[in-house]
Amino acid sequence: MNKNKIVNDPVWGFIQLPSELAYDIVSHPYFQRLRRIVQMGLSFLVYPGAVHTRFNHSLGCLHLMKEALDMLQAKGVPITAEEKDAACAAILLHDIGHGPLSHVLEHTLLPSVSHEAVSQLIMQRLNREWNGRLDMAMAIFNGRYDKPFLHQLVSGQLDVDRLDYLNRDSFYTGVQEGVVGTERIIKMMNVHEGQLVVEEKSIYSLEKFILSRRMMFWQVYLHKTSVCAELMLGHTLDRARFLLGENEELAGSPALLQLLRRPSGQAADDTLLEPFSAIDDSDIWFSLKAWTQSRDMVLRTLSQRLLERKLFKSEMRNVPFEKEYIERVGAETLEKVGNADWLPYFFYEKSLSTKSYKYDTKEDDGIRVLLKDGQVVDLTTVSDLLDRHFVMKVDEKHLLCHA
Amino acid sequence: MNKNKIVNDPVWGFIQLPSELAYDIVSHPYFQRLRRIVQMGLSFLVYPGAVHTRFNHSLGCLHLMKEALDMLQAKGVPITAEEKDAACAAILLHDIGHGPLSHVLEHTLLPSVSHEAVSQLIMQRLNREWNGRLDMAMAIFNGRYDKPFLHQLVSGQLDVDRLDYLNRDSFYTGVQEGVVGTERIIKMMNVHEGQLVVEEKSIYSLEKFILSRRMMFWQVYLHKTSVCAELMLGHTLDRARFLLGENEELAGSPALLQLLRRPSGQAADDTLLEPFSAIDDSDIWFSLKAWTQSRDMVLRTLSQRLLERKLFKSEMRNVPFEKEYIERVGAETLEKVGNADWLPYFFYEKSLSTKSYKYDTKEDDGIRVLLKDGQVVDLTTVSDLLDRHFVMKVDEKHLLCHA
Amino acid sequence: MNKNKIVNDPVWGFIQLPSELAYDIVSHPYFQRLRRIVQMGLSFLVYPGAVHTRFNHSLGCLHLMKEALDMLQAKGVPITAEEKDAACAAILLHDIGHGPLSHVLEHTLLPSVSHEAVSQLIMQRLNREWNGRLDMAMAIFNGRYDKPFLHQLVSGQLDVDRLDYLNRDSFYTGVQEGVVGTERIIKMMNVHEGQLVVEEKSIYSLEKFILSRRMMFWQVYLHKTSVCAELMLGHTLDRARFLLGENEELAGSPALLQLLRRPSGQAADDTLLEPFSAIDDSDIWFSLKAWTQSRDMVLRTLSQRLLERKLFKSEMRNVPFEKEYIERVGAETLEKVGNADWLPYFFYEKSLSTKSYKYDTKEDDGIRVLLKDGQVVDLTTVSDLLDRHFVMKVDEKHLLCHA
Amino acid sequence: MNKNKIVNDPVWGFIQLPSELAYDIVSHPYFQRLRRIVQMGLSFLVYPGAVHTRFNHSLGCLHLMKEALDMLQAKGVPITAEEKDAACAAILLHDIGHGPLSHVLEHTLLPSVSHEAVSQLIMQRLNREWNGRLDMAMAIFNGRYDKPFLHQLVSGQLDVDRLDYLNRDSFYTGVQEGVVGTERIIKMMNVHEGQLVVEEKSIYSLEKFILSRRMMFWQVYLHKTSVCAELMLGHTLDRARFLLGENEELAGSPALLQLLRRPSGQAADDTLLEPFSAIDDSDIWFSLKAWTQSRDMVLRTLSQRLLERKLFKSEMRNVPFEKEYIERVGAETLEKVGNADWLPYFFYEKSLSTKSYKYDTKEDDGIRVLLKDGQVVDLTTVSDLLDRHFVMKVDEKHLLCHA
């Protein structure tokens, strides 16, 4: 890679690294590690094409950030070269804290540490290493820079992160429903009193964007089979952690085992960085394969079923399962597994909701629409389709998985 | 997966498993393992989107086989339901013998065993397990079935394997040059005296197919940077094998180490099956990470450079490098590594040729064109572009890589 | 064209004419005439790529009909070869009654004749010519055949017409918002008690389908600029009709003039067929060019502005324009045109609503969803997004155009 | 259209008009007229999707010109704002002289006037109208501007014209063979001593470009059926011209008839402009329809067969037809038409060659490749595939058409 590198991307075509800082970030081992972390967790068990990585996605975000900033400049929004580099650095680093299989293990591997907290740790480390070169990028990332639109492009209801992942995930899964008119939306962006706004005539594209995201959630991200696989994997790690707690000797990736031995309530701190940055998807698969030889029936069975895609049966409903039904299925499952202590590893009940996945939370940070008359209003006040009722509604589904 | 499963494929749309046999093959752990093996080896270090797997590709081939057989039946070629199932099984299994990173390690991990030999072992094992259900599929696969066109669709100059991988690799790399008019070529297929032929008016599409393949070889498959990475990985494994021979204790994947300890001249036999089917890409990445802690400087350095994509400098030319130039670069490299025993691990010279990659070998099995007047001739006799001179020519390039 | 003709289609790939009847329809001058009629009227003045024809669209519908029927047969729905041919004929002929610029002139050129009425006339004529070969196709077309699902595929809330035009119009305009998961929807179709149903797991695709259609209406079909151009063209023809009524001599296409002289209340009858089938888009453009030399200022001005795309200024709003505003703009326009009799040709006010465009009427013919438990319910009862409130709501917009 | 207009293009996405000059050209009636002229003549009779217009194509060229100039500037090539506007104007106007059906009638309607000559007339007229605003654009267009690369981008072996039409024609025909890596080729462009060059690593893309063009010629542009239709249309106009010479009264478009009455040897001059700019495809279709009522059997028959796509039988071969075969088919045709004077209208023999279509002429203006060592050489000296022998070879085919 020379410092003016162009990369082929199947989604956006050629992506150019716009600065030396971008080049240095991409070249760093922390970033190269993202090549070994799939973007969509275990979704590839349902959509076999979906094996693209956080590395791809991060470069795609960089590309869209550059497009958006160029377009805003062309519209007369003042943005300095340094701000441009910083915003590009911020978006490149926005997912640097992801661990193996992206979101899948976020609350399992390190129960009390979010990927955002790890991102902060890593950025701080890099910034120290690089003597403050990331100061402005971190200010933008954390919403402390006084041009809020830069932060909103990194992280907001209409950030380049979403504009990339919806199209990218559609591309790799083959599910056309998620395709979003990204080029059009970017062309319609503007800045009004420091805030990111979109012009009125993009309303239909915005509606489409919101709904594509909702559809991708239910049709892909929360597909009952991949959620079931994720629950199985989470319980596998839980079992390993339990066995380690019992001083059981376990094979598998040493760095992964080290993290599993960490007290589950311990917050993110620098002791995390070394083992965390040492692991990626290969540690999971390698360990699962090792665990198929474990003496523990639970660990052995779950590992093998994941590797061979012999997933549990799963049912998803719009209304909660009746208590009797849950009990009956639980009893049947217990009969199969033969040990009440083991049941929680083979029988899961879970509610999935958009609240927990925040696909359209409103907070104070909605999508601002710039009307032709110069007013700025929230999207929900001008969209016929996305009225507040719809947008605020919590979609909820109920999942039951059993061996 | 129910036995009438439809799978989303980003390249061909929906793919339907056409038979219970196909379903059983896809469900088998040997086949599920292909989910963890990338199709294009280390090409993703140059084309970051190219992380698709042998699993994807095998399903894609299945789809094209079904399309081709349906079309031939519609043209009146007699094909029984059993033959259809068998041809589909044969194509599903054609890559079952691939090891980690597909072709990359084919001559390094097991120096005297080809992936085809492993495929045979695995098919024989499955056929025993399944009491002969694969008899006809294996006859087709091995060219022993008396309808040669079935074998030619599985393995020939115009097989569905190539028709899938050229389009699929183009799709995932973003390199448009490889796109092939697959749908058109399949529509033009026919059978003449038991042999697969293509109708005359497809000549331009066939020329395009041959040239797309040639371009993909030089622009993608043999890209100097990914070949360099592959050589580095091969030498890393060689070093590990050497150290094991010296009774050095090595961390890393036990199954991988077991294979590396295997006498290098030993042919394929059943003792191979267990360790071989236990490993996939994750064993390579896991071991490389473990080896970054090795006491051996060679193993440690190579492993780290691969993980962090700090690849050697590589040069590629159409003519051989001058002897003096090679010696000079060799001497400079030696100075850097400081030990003549280590030099071969940090300095590679290699000729790449189309012969070794057989992109257009003619043998007796060229592409047969059915002329309007009923004659069948070889493509090179009717193509203005692809005359024998061009097709027989051995393209050769020369590569020099050094730390 | 031989009778087993394959046609290249940029949207669906290769389209095969499935029967001799289909071949004969496509070869007929009535059908070839559709090559000279654009699908999307004057939309190409806004989306310059949208110059595709009714001929393309009709072949696309044929293709989807064939896919749907093949798939239903594969699921065990009994469909005879004759029914298949008839359904294919019905869909090929569904737009045969379209006149120049498709919908644009539907209520202007022949104020009291719909394109469906003309379609009936033409089918009857063809059926007489062909001694009843179209009997079954016409029964299906008119909903008189006792397998209702065949009619529903031709004309219903989820017919192949819509599945083709949404994707096709998206493709040619470059507006991605209209892309629909056609392949997925067709795979999910089934028949229940003779009615077309779709399986429950397609709900997200169906929601997307309904919303894509709504978005295409507002963003493309009812784009204020193309509606304005259509109103201008309608008024141009009205002016020509008025001048003919005044015995003014007019240049232009004789067949077009003949239709304009027809009493406006006259219903569809066989006297219509000859002049109607003689005209296509070229008569409109040719006549507009001739009329730029007219002595009549209104006719001359409108014709020239259409040809040179000097369209009126147009405003579109969600709420009705205030009376005072309309009056003020009217007065300003009057001042420009200088003659109160001419004002209606240069000043239009119009309400556009989804009711008039029926994008989601419910009638008795909604989209039937087959639940997993075997029940069949209307889509709106199971969709979280498309509740009855939303679906029944009449979207209305208000347009003002002035010179 | 406001002066900062963005246009949706299905091939390249959003196209922005880069200057007021570009806006004024696009708005001019001469340019709007291109909306009514199909890009690919009668190819739509074989590829029904290919109904895109010169208007689309000209905007597409504008887009690529802008991309190329931006990229060259980014590489440090000095280009002033005025030169940019002028080059954009030159490419917008490069096809302004095309008449109905683009190339089809180029040597029939005005036998001694090329479309380039008409383009010159129109540019001169516009330049007078606009007081010299097009001076620089015309200098670039005519190769008189002292930065040759600007002319080479407008018209050369690797101009944006070809880069647009190959992709666009592929897109609209559905023939994938013509897709070209335009984005990649543009990224590899540079300027060396004032000449346009492409960097060495683009060689495979350039080979693909040359071959795609060759394939498109034989598979699409020179498809025997559309060439046959074009010959039929040429002979129809010849017949009309002959009848007018005999003082026969003919219906049809007056402006078209005026051009047909023009002495066939008369060169391009200003008297041409008015009738020429008045006609477009609609005049052809309208006249053909009028001529189906002609008393002249030849004119009537040819017109009707074109409208109803009842084309002559056509045969194409790589070697010339034998004299006897031609005579035999001629005699059979004569028997059918019954009049020796009419035979030339119903029986055509024609050789098609790449020379006449100049797909790879070398002249002094080949494709210059900038080698890594700084040398500039012709593509054919560094391409393994495109050696001089192949490139200089005249491909020739022979066509026979008869009623």
Which key terms come to mind for this protein?
homotetramer; 4-stranded mixed sheet; 3-stranded antiparallel sheet; 20 helices; globular
Description:
Four copies of one chain form a homotetramer. With 403 residues, chain A is of the alpha+beta class. Chain A has helices at 20-27, 29-32, 54-74, 81-93, 115-129, 135-141, 148-154, 160-173, 182-187, 203-221, 224-245, 254-261, 273-278, 281-291, 297-307, 323-337, 343-346, 354-357, 379-382, 388-392; strands at residues 6-9, 13-16, 189-192, 195-199, 313-317, 347-353, 368-370, 376-378, 396-402. In chain A, strand 7 and strand 8 (376-378) form a beta hairpin. In chain A, helix 3 crosses helix 8 (160-173), helix 11 (224-245) runs antiparallel to helix 15 (297-307) and helix 14 packs across helix 15 (297-307). The longest helix of chain A has 22 residues, at 224-245. Chain A is globular, with a radius of gyration of 22 Å. Chains A and B meet through strand 1, helix 3, helix 8 and helix 14 of A and strand 1, helix 3, helix 8 and helix 14 of B.
